[in-house]
Amino acid sequence: MDLRIQRSVVSHLRTRPKALEIGPFVAGLDPDTESPFINYASPVPGAPITAADVAALVTAFTEAGRKPRLEYVTSCTLELEALLLGAGFTVEVRNQYLICTPSTLGTPPVPADFDLREPETDRDRAAVITAQNEAFGDFSGDPSEDAVARMRRHQENGGVTLGARTRDGVWAGGGQAVPPNDGLSEVAGIAVREAFRRRGLGGAITAGITRRLFDRGAEVAWLEASGDDSWRVYERIGFVPSGYRLYISRD
């Protein structure tokens, strides 16, 4: 499973607006945002990697005006972490990821007075992004046109975006999943505004996204939990622990 996950990540990066092949790495860059969570690289499984390759990666990111950053499944490239640390990189976090299949997925009830729906207009997309941002502690205001356009492209390219909305039209949270590749898709960005938490919305959104992935032919959904609370939510709906991924960057 580790190898399938890593291959899927690399394939997804190749679909970015500005994808770069840098030796044994694939970098997925987006000219519309400097966010390091969107602009990052990952190694091609099985490709040999040298210190010179890492130096070339740093140069490519620097020339693009982006922070050098990688995300990858650790078991697929065991020697890479030492090379990165030697080049001045710092580990951000090491997360265990969880996987779910159609046979393990549970479908919790959607809490009363809420509907789950995919945003169909840019106004709704902006509202979902705002809800996610606020849930993650970002109260900077309305999302940019680029962020809304990115969500629209995401949906048009086969990705899933799902939001939870109250019966009176307030978007309480949301999440998304990348377009399936090799039968796999990553679920991410699950977020619920503080005022709507502790009602089961996080689990309902995650299950709703995952069910849509399976209905569209995905074989495996995977995600990472940010803490004990979310870990329990994901396990309750059928996600089980699997391998580990490393997030590492250089200032």
TrEMBL record:
The record's listing under Gene3D superfamilies reads: 3.40.630.30
The record's section on Pfam families has: Acetyltransf_1
Q: Which InterPro entries match?
A: Acyl_CoA_acyltransferase (IPR016181), GNAT_dom (IPR000182)
Boundaries of every N-acetyltransferase domain copy: 114-251
What is the source species?
A: Actinoplanes couchii
Q: Name the chain's protein.
A: N-acetyltransferase domain-containing protein
Q: Which domain of life is it from?
A: Bacteria
Q: Which SUPFAM superfamilies match?
A: Acyl-CoA N-acyltransferases (Nat)
